[in-house]
Amino acid sequence: MTRVGSEAIRETFLGFFEKNGHARIAGAPVVPKNDPTLLFINSGMAPLKPYFTGEVTPAHPDLCNYQACIRTKDIEDVGDRHHLTFFEMLGSWSIGNYFKDHAIELAYGLLTDGFKLKPSQLYVTVFAGDPALGIPADEESAAAWERVGISRDHIVALPAEDNFWGPAGNSGPCGPCTEVFLDTGDAFGPAYVPGGEFDTKRRYIEIWNAGVFMQFNKGLDGTFQPLPFTSVDTGSGLERLELALNGLDTVYESDLLAPVVTSVQEMLGETGEIQRHHRLIADHMRASTIILADGARPSNEGRGYIPRRLVRKCVTVALSRGHDTLNFEPVLDVIIDRLGPHYPRIAGGRDMLTEVIRAERDDFGRTVRRGMERLDGIIAGKGAIDGADAFNMFATYGLPVEITKEIAAERGVEVSLDDYEKEFRQHQVRSRGVAETASGPKHLKASDVLPGTIAKLPRTDFLGYDGLTTQARVLAILVNGNPVETLESGVPADLIVDRTPFYAEGGGQVGDSGELVGTDAHGRITSTLSHSSGHSTHHVTLIDGSLAVGDQIELSVEAYARVRTAANHSATHLLNAALRRVLGDHVTQAGSLVEPERLRFDFTHPTPMTAEQIEATERLVNDWILTGAKRHVDIMTPDEAKAQGAISLAGEAYGDEVRVVSFGSMSKELCGGTHVDHTTMIGSFRITTEQSVAAGVRRINAVTRDGAINYALEQTHTLREVSSVLRSNPRDAAVAAQRLLDRVNRKGSGAAEAGQPATVRPTLDTTVGDVRVVAGKLNAEMPVLRTEAQRLSAEHNGVVMLWNTADNGKTTVVVSLAPAVAARLNATAIVRDLTGRVGGSGGGSPAIAQGGVPALPAGTDLGQELVTTITALTAA
Ligand code: SER
After folding, report:
1. Ligand 1 centroid, distance to 74 Cα (angstroms)
2. Rounded CA separation 108/115 (Å)
3. Helices and strands counted in the chain (H then E)
4. Angle 644-648-651 (CA atoms, 0-180°, nearest 5)?
5. Would you say the CB of residue 129 lies under 6 angstroms from ligand 1?
6. Among 64, 177, 236, which residue has the most ligand 1 atoms within 8 Å of its CB, making it the best to mutate?
7. Any ligand 1 atom below 6 A from CB of 67
8. Is the peptide bond before 846 cis (omega within 30 degrees of 0)?
9. Whether 642 contacts 650, CB under 8 Å
10. Is the shortest distance between the CB of 234 and ligand 1 below 6 Å?
11. Where would you tag: which of 448, 560, 760, 832 has the fewest CB atoms within 10 A of its CB?
């Protein structure tokens, strides 16, 4: 067999799609932009998500490219035949243009014409359908494959776990897919027999996800919504394709990886066969290279923890095999030479990459060497590692428990993790909650009492009402809650300074984040807390340089985040005042949270707000915003504040002087938070949800500024979609929907059977003890009542009852419990008790039950009956 190299494969794939009208686009960096649902780009489609959802329209509908991908899910398996942390994906897409038939024609063309594979070597899988998802079997794809020349007995239907792809991350576009497998022949196991098992482990190797048929958008709440149009997404791992096309044994023999693996072996001065640890270091170094080149930096949290973990693993593996002087540079050189031509950011980043990897190696190498000596000493002494040892490795040498486990495993020794957890918890108690976690050190909590020496320092002077930047002096540095004199880069710490513009978390408002710059230091402050001693701690990690107690630094708050937080805080005050106007003076604040992205406000009110009340509140707040009222701050005694009618928090202790924040005559509140200069800076205000949190306490979530505008646009988009489905104009959508529902009900079939979503307006939404209880009437047949009740009970995480009264007067009732509630209550018991009291009967399972009442006694309030039943059953 003549060998085809990765370059030829890359060009055959992309050239074929270009020839067939696809535009070749550039890949994206592996560090996602604006996608908090993903740690790293993990497939070719991930950076293109906004195309699939219709938020952005590409210049050309049909596209192709190669995309660097990082997958950390199977990191423990790296070094075997085909697992890689970093791989390249060849991909092609049709955004809202062609669909299954043409995608499969193209796929067949590339496989047979482009890669010269014989149809007899190819097997394809298609989606077998899934009643739970409500998606039927993909007969169209099967038929399309047959039409182009794949025989029926080479087409295998598989369930959702194999053939429903996505989303990339926990939400986003997804759909059924069709995959292509190469038959590697009888030497690798028995041939597939239709109806039998399809062995995708040995004999049949997946080479291409030749079509994800994007049809759905999975929401963060787990529900699937149809996308505005259908699209095609295909992807093939380049290294895997090279393995399959050349009959290689492992992906590490691909010409992209083999030179790197060899350079690792040379670096270690080893000879003979390539071993797993050579492959592992090659993979981890390649992955670190692209992650660093794309802008992430080693750290103990989030994305930065991955390159740190990867480099540390390489250091540990090499050291544990007795290699003391580690010089990764030659390996890095080979990686840069191989990847550089395709990734200019790697080619241009040589110095930075060498430097960062060297620094990580040196930092970690020193500690890990001492740790390993100690570990070897323990193993030699008692032949085992217990949890206390593992914990000491961590506390003393910074050796994460997973690395201790790995070293121990290489010595054939197991670590008992039960004891480790126990030690860990005891340590947390000893240090009053200031403890390291397995994924890195943890910072102080607001409830932590600072060490005595610190508490004696002058209190922190807060200057952040008037400015966002200040010169300050470092008074103390705490690492894991313990005072230290100096701080090196990469170590998370808490900093106390004499004066700061950073607002410390309090009064519901989150602490500020921002930057620190010193003569020889640059760091990021991710949160700020205040302590009972009157000190603010700034949680900081230096990106470069070092810092010592006594240093002069400049502190700058991230202005955009601050302005958004301030807008949300001022909006919270206006909301508080507006609710009193709309609902009455009984409204009192019961809690609040103010963040850059949103605000949450809890208040006392006995019943759910009506749609009209919500609208009136939104209108009033927005009217007030438009007045452009200036913010006024007055310092006065609590009595004066009371006399002026300022709103204060019940139960809150105030000092001799209070800060009163007011906006015109609309709002006056005692508050220590930061606010906008005038109300127009709030921009716009929208309530996103109104719900119950406890008996008599309601919760509003709301957004302002760009958040409010995005919310409004999303709603318009949904309404436009709904009206296009109903073929009405947006203004008449409700009438059109009602008409359709009436027609469906007249036909006697459930709304869901006609494919229309049923809607419920709960007439009861309350809590009994801590159980959420929701009830409502739904004009639909039993199957729809059941599905809706199940959906709603999951959504509200509580008890949901739906009922319907038919023309003949008979009432049907369904009660469904969310799993957490089903552990304590029983749906059958609820239905029996309730229907029994009103002359009916019922039964079912512990999680869902139904019942019937021939004729409800006049004046029966089923919602109230439900509350009575649940109160009785929870008391029992
Ligand atoms: N998104 C699909 C996959 O990753 C096809 O590219 O398999």
Report:
1. 17
2. 10
3. 25, 34
4. 135
5. no
6. 177
7. no
8. no
9. no
10. yes
11. 560
Q: What is the pLDDT of residue 858?
A: 84
**Rounded to the nearest 5 degrees, what angle is found at the Cα of 282, between the Cα atoms of 279 and 286?**
140
Please state which of the ranges 133-142, 219-228, 826-835 shows the lowest mean pLDDT: 219-228
Find out whether the beta carbon of 209 lies less than 6 Å from any atom of ligand 1: yes
Ligand 1 center–CA 218 separation, angstroms:
16
Q: Inform me whether the pLDDT recorded for 278 exceeds 70.
A: yes
Amino acid identity at 474: V
pLDDT-wise least confident of 108-112, 201-205, 297-301, 552-556: 297-301
- The count of other CB atoms within 10 Å of the CB of residue 306 is 23
pLDDT digit string, tens, across residues 389-399: 887 777 666 67
Q: 3-state SS string over 326-343? A: CCCHHHHHHHHHHHCCCC
Q: What is the rounded end-to-end Cα distance, in angstroms, of the chain?
A: 76
The shares of helix, strand and coil residues in the chain, as percent rounded to the nearest 5, are 40, 25, 35
pLDDT digits (tens, 9 = 90+) for 833-870: 999 988 899 988 889 999 999 988 888 889 999 999 99
Nearest CA-CA partner of 792 in 805, 773, 811: 773
For ligand 1, atom 2, name the residue with the nearest CA: 235
Reduce the DSSP state of residue 62 to 3 states and report it: strand
What confidence category does residue 427 fall into, taking pLDDT thresholds of 50, 70 and 90?
Answer: low
The closest of 75, 27, 485 to 309, measured between CA atoms, is 75
Confidence of residue 631 (pLDDT cuts 50, 70, 90): very high
Q: Which pair of tokens denotes residue 252?
A: 């590490």
167 CA distance to ligand 1 middle (Å)? 9
- 91: which DSSP letter? E
Could you tell me if the CB of 212 is within 6 A of ligand 1?
Answer: yes
- The rounded distance, in Å, linking the Cα atoms of 702 and 618 is 10
Cβ neighbours for 364, distance < 8 A, ≥ 6 positions apart: 311, 312, 315, 398
Ligand 1 close to Cβ of residue 470 (< 6 A): no
Residues near 43 by beta carbon (within 8 Å), at least 6 away in sequence? 67, 69, 89, 91, 168, 235
487-521: pLDDT as tens digits: 988 888 999 999 999 999 887 899 999 999 998 89
**Is the shortest distance between the CB of 504 and ligand 1 below 6 Å?**
no
Average pLDDT of the chain?
Answer: 88
**Distance between alpha carbon 105 and the CA centroid of its chain, in Å?**
36
- Tokens standing for residue 629: 């009222």
Q: What is the whole-number distance in angstroms between the Cα of residue 214 and the centre of ligand 1?
A: 11
Name the residue at shortest CA distance from atom 4 of ligand 1: 43
Of ligand 1's listed atoms, the one at least distance from the Cα of 235 is: 6
Contact call for residues 21 and 62 (beta carbons, < 8 A): yes
Structure tokens at 130: 């899934």
Is 165's C-beta closer than 6 angstroms to any atom of ligand 1?
yes
Residue 441: per-residue pLDDT: 42
Contact 277, 283 (CB under 8 A): no
Q: Which of 233, 236, 241 to mutate to test the pocket of ligand 1 (most atoms within 8 A of CB)?
A: 233
Residue by residue, what is the 3-state secondary structure of 474-485?
EEEEEECCEEEC
Task: Please tell me the distance between residue 311's alpha carbon and the centre of ligand 1 in angstroms.
Answer: 28
Instruction: Specify the residue with its C-alpha closest to ligand 1, atom 6.
Output: 235
Which numbered atom of ligand 1 lies nearest the CA of 46? 1
Q: Check if 235 has its Cβ closer than 6 Å to any atom of ligand 1.
A: yes
Tokens of 434: 């200031």
User: Structure tokens of 674?
Assistant: 């930061």
Neighbours of 396 (CB within 10 A): 12
